[in-house]
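re: ur question from yesterday

yeah so i grabbed the chain u mentioned. its 573 aa long if i counted rite. heres the sequnce exactly as i have it in my notes:
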Amino acid sequence: MRWIIRLVGLVVVVIVVAVGALFLVPAERIAALAARQFEAATGRQLVIAGSVKPTVWPVVGARIEGVTLANAAGSDAGPMLTAEAVDLGVDLSALIGGSVIVRNFEARAPRIVLERDAQGRGNWEFEGLTGGGESAAASGGGGVPAVALDRAVIQNASLRFIDRVAGTDVTVDGVDIELAMPEAGGAAELRLVARRGGEEGQVTARIGSVSGLLAGDVVSVAAQLSTAGAQASFEGRAGLEPLAAEGRISAEGSRLAPLLALAGQSGAEPLPEGARPVSLAGQVTLAPAGSLHLRDGVLGFGQNRVRAALDLTFDGPRPNLTGELAADALDLRAFTEGGGDSSSGGTGWPTTPIDASALGLLDATVNIALGPVQTGFGTFDQLRGSLTIDRARAVLALRELRAFDGTLSGEVVANNRSGLSVGGTLALRSVSLMPMLRQAADFERLSGTASMDLQFLGVGQSVDAIMRSLEGAGRLDLGAGEIRGLDLAGMLRNLDASYVGEGNSTIYDSITGSFTMAGGILSNEDLRLEARLLGVGGTGTVDLGRQVLDYRVTPEAMRNADTGDALRVPLLI
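ran it thru and got these structure tokens back, copy pasting raw so excuse formatting
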């Protein structure tokens, strides 16, 4: 807003000089005189390479062609402003009375460079027009005259934003800007349309007092942002010296890809179907240092709501997010249940490429506290953990996850620094098998308690590639329990395979085993089931990538406690 007001006001100086000399001086001398007056007022060179064509009807004004405004001293980014033509019309009666009411201002195809140097000074801060000069101007006390705008338009502009402090350089083409300020220094309404990456976004805003804003005061501000599939609004107050704001924010979107394209981040839609619409509401603060802070925040995705207290800083190579997330309950079944399409034709693991580029958008350290969480493979009673992202490497640390009367702890890592890899270390303790298997797989034939340790690592850009590359190791320990629908002791004792179905069961004391994984193949050599009348040993492999089982199970019965001899019937699966 500040640079728009200043550019319009400074052009007014040129036009006032041009109109004043309308009947006295040839056009080429008008241009030279206006340029000298401008440079004297601002310390910046103004070049008018084209013609100056004054007009007297329907408003007094002029068209200036071939305008170039020099950048701040020391900049290597080229002129601050170049424009094919600038048209301006002012109210004659107001001008005679000593004030300026701009009936129409239009700049076509300008190239505007906004630059903040290493000391934090903006190139829109002209010599003699800072601090108290703002107030003086607004009140008519010298410098650039106070300006009231019926309508100011900038069409098809190219805006380049250079921040030497943050090390950023962004160019946005095809920008349209409309500004209205009916009273000099009073309330103003702004409309900006930007186009980038094939998308279009619109910003509208209302500022309570332009003179107050330019003088460094904090003033009321209301703003709205809209893109294809997303909307946001802000209502609060803001100031420019230093740049800061606080107020209530509200945002909702069913698509984020258009917004990311406008921000220069092209790629696939990052928002899954089950998360739509995504929303955000809360009290937000933009601190003078440039950081963003959210308090009393509520994040929504689908039907879920998460309370949030977050801080976002921009003083590193990537934005950095810290804070806390909490929810009384979540339903994540839309993200975790099967049924999705893949290119595997219905067999094997999905081969659809995984787009993990979002891991590189920011760094983060966020603590998480959740109540019951429903998923496609069961309900978790409680989750306490944290999410850390550092240079496209995300770590989900599970300090405590309570489910099925047991706990799960450890960490899961997704690393996209140089290709995608997924790994982790997990410890499962004293989980009740029956409710877990019932919810996860609709299986109700195994009861008891289970503990397991697992280390794993897979590399690849699809689920199929990851499963075929798995490396790691683990161990499984099941306490006393029951296998329903299968009487192993009866089968061995009578050499009869009919001991299956309702009413048959095998009571076991323990089931143990360890395994290793290499190249997507799980190998086990020591599976052991112990029961009062029998035992079962197992050895073999599971090709996790190809989903192929090659395993030998050896039940044994009528064991001699002294010699170890027993009846054994090996079975190849």
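noticed a couple things. Residues 130-144, 339-346 have pLDDT under 50 and may be disordered. also Residues 329-469 form one domain.
anyway ttyl
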